[in-house]
UniProtKB/TrEMBL annotation:
Key words, A-Z: Heme, Iron, Metal-binding
Residue numbers binding heme: 500
Pfam families: p450 (PF00067)
Cofactor(s) listed: heme
Residue ranges that the Swiss-Prot or TrEMBL entry lists as coiled coil: none
UniProt key word Flavoprotein: no
Molecular function in Gene Ontology: heme binding; iron ion binding; monooxygenase activity; oxidoreductase activity, acting on paired donors, with incorporation or reduction of molecular oxygen
Keyword Ion transport assigned: no
InterPro entries: Cyt_P450, Cyt_P450_E_grp-I, Cyt_P450_sf, Cytochrome_P450_monoxygenase
Family membership noted in the UniProt record: Belongs to the cytochrome P450 family.
Taxonomic path: Eukaryota, Fungi, Dikarya, Ascomycota, Pezizomycotina
Protein name from the UniProt record: Cytochrome P450 monooxygenase
Superkingdom as given in the UniProt entry: Eukaryota
């Protein structure tokens, strides 16, 4: 016993106890002075994580925790402690201040590493995986023309119209086979948007939707999604598998390292990467060969536009690194664009099935504008005055903005709503919650750094939690209504230099899909037990259930 409790042993135990105590104290959150936080979180080694996990268990998704503490405390700016030994991150729940931060203060706040890591593992070297540096600026110049209204309204519209037409054929077939019963459209919408983006990117046919039509015609019955997925083109299956790993940095304590290991060590994902890279490299090399032969017009596809821009910069000998950049950006275009518009369209289906009065207004508007033609002409879609349709699109995006949070990091010591913010602090800005889908929280106007007075951020907005598309409509003197895209609060695509580069494409694609699908189908009410607006977090805010009942509308 004397040996066990010798003075040396006691000193060692005391030293270890002291070290553990000091380590635990060091691991406790270190609040930034003056900024509110959830009481008690500063005394927990895990900070806000236990509360966030409890919220996730109750709500079924994590992303709504981004604005829940702000609503509970009634403050627009608070700090969260999300990792031991890590510095606090900030939660900014005010759309007006968030817009100012992303636009006028872009020199103070950079696109965050956390956001970059969600794309860097699978799609390195792309706009979404880069800081705002010279490589990022070079890629933006390369993409240049593809982000303009002129290009999207011509090359993009052609791809969208063709894809929407094939989707109509598929859904009409499924509606016939379903015989008035409910069926799922999640994969149908994703396959259609994949076809659209592939055609826009390469001026080729991917064949995702046509493969499903062929399979259903052969079986003459509705098939399980897994059976249909096996029929998809190999490159699309590869894209889906690779994209699925982008969730890993969100869920794993190892972050992007875990994702990279999975991509490199999992046989299925190694094969997917090989198939994906080989196909895209082939497409780019074939196009580069045509370019050298002066046989690749710039307005043929997004890839053609980018290669022509590179030729103008480098001449006929485009560096391999630049060709790889083209390949990478086209891959990101598919990854980012396929699921987002598909999910948004699925949300629109859900809202319109519940709000039959809204759907009937849109349908009446379409008939008034287009008459009773069997198929709406492609060239009539963009110039058509469709205020109710546009209002629905924006109201869906206001309620379900797809991206759960915009994140920026302070580049310098600065101020935010009167509080000192040290360099390297992450600021999370959810595009839902206070000032978007619930009333704005009170702010001392003298504490703001910007002078934005847009009516978008007016405190007169009411019932923000209600789906009411007519909030986007302004009544004219002659009794008609005009759509106003700044009539209500929305920051779905972020803002400033790091705003989503595909915004114009996504908004037009959403419009084309709404117009064409509502022309050919009526969304019938679902049984009450099947109506829900539950969501899953998977980089995007996706609907948990995407069931529909469709009635085919006979035209002409």
């Amino acid at each position: 016993m004397d040996t066990i409790f010798s003075p040396t042993t006691i000193l060692v135990l005391l030293a270890l106890t002291a070290i553990l105590y000091l380590a635990s104290r060091a691991a406790l959150p270190k609040p930034l002075p003056g900024i509110p936080y959830v009481p008690g979180s500063e005394k927990n080694l895990l900070g806000n994580l236990p509360l966030a996990l409890a919220h996730t268990k109750h709500a079924g998704r994590f992303s709504s925790y981004f604005y829940k503490p702000a609503e509970d405390l009634g403050v627009p700016l608070l700090q969260l402690f999300m990792q031991p030994f890590g510095r606090p991150c900030l939660l900014l729940c005010d759309g007006r201040e968030a817009q100012d931060l992303m636009t006028r203060r872009a020199h103070e706040f950079e696109y965050a590493d956390f956001a970059i890591d969600l794309h860097r593992g699978a799609w390195p070297g792309t706009l979404a995986a880069l800081k705002t540096n010279e490589r990022w600026r070079a890629n933006r110049r390369m993409l240049g023309e593809t982000t303009t209204s002129r290009f999207v309204n011509s090359v993009g519209l052609e791809a969208m119209y063709r894809g929407a037409g094939e989707l109509v054929e598929l859904l009409a077939l499924k509606a016939r086979l379903a015989r008035g019963e409910v069926f799922d459209v999640r994969e149908d919408l994703k396959n259609a948007t994949a076809d659209i983006i592939w055609t826009y990117s390469y001026n080729g046919k991917l064949g995702a939707v046509s493969s499903q039509i062929e399979a259903l015609n052969e079986s003459n019955k509705l098939l399980d999604n897994q059976v249909l997925a096996a029929k998809l083109p190999d490159v699309l299956k590869a894209i889906i598998d690779i994209s699925a790993t982008s969730q890993i940095p969100l869920e794993s304590p190892l972050g992007i390292t875990h994702q990279k290991l999975v991509l490199r060590l999992t046989p299925k994902l190694r094969r997917a990467t090989a198939v994906h890279d080989a196909r895209l490299e082939h497409e780019v090399k074939q196009a580069a060969k045509r370019l050298s032969e002066k046989k690749l017009p710039a307005d043929e596809s997004a890839m053609a536009s980018m290669l022509n821009r590179l030729q103008a910069t480098f001449g006929d000998e485009i560096p391999a690194s630049e060709l790889k950049a083209v390949q990478n950006e086209l891959a990101l275009m598919m990854h980012a664009g396929q699921k987002t518009v598909a999910d948004t369209t699925a949300w629109a289906f859900k809202y319109l099935a519940v709000h039959q009065d809204v759907q009937q207004k849109v349908r009446a508007e379409l008939k008034a504008v287009f008459g009773n033609v069997s198929t709406i002409p492609k060239e009539d879609i963009i110039p058509a005055n469709l205020p109710h349709c546009d209002a629905v699109a924006h109201e869906v995006l206001r309620h379900m903005p797809i991206i759960p949070c915009h994140i920026r990091t302070s580049l310098v010591d600065t101020q935010l709503l009167g509080h000192f913010i040290p360099k390297g602090t992450n600021v999370f800005m959810p595009p839902v919650g206070p000032s978007f889908t619930s009333p704005a929280l009170p702010i001392d106007e003298s504490k703001r750094t910007g002078n934005t007075t847009s009516r978008m951020w007016s405190h007169s907005h009411t019932d923000l939690d209600v789906f009411r598309p007519d909030r986007w409509l302004v009544k004219q003197e002659d009794g008609s209504v005009k759509f106003d895209n700044r009539a209500a609060p929305m920051l779905t695509f972020a803002d400033g230099p790091r705003m989503c580069f595909g915004t114009k494409f996504a908004m037009l694609e959403f419009r084309v899909l709404l117009v064409v699908l509502l022309w050919h189908f009526e969304l019938l009410e679902l049984p009450r037990e099947l109506v829900d607006f539950e969501a899953n977090d998977f980089l995007t805010i996706e609907p948990r259930n995407t069931r529909v009942r469709l009635r085919v509308v006979e035209r002409g």
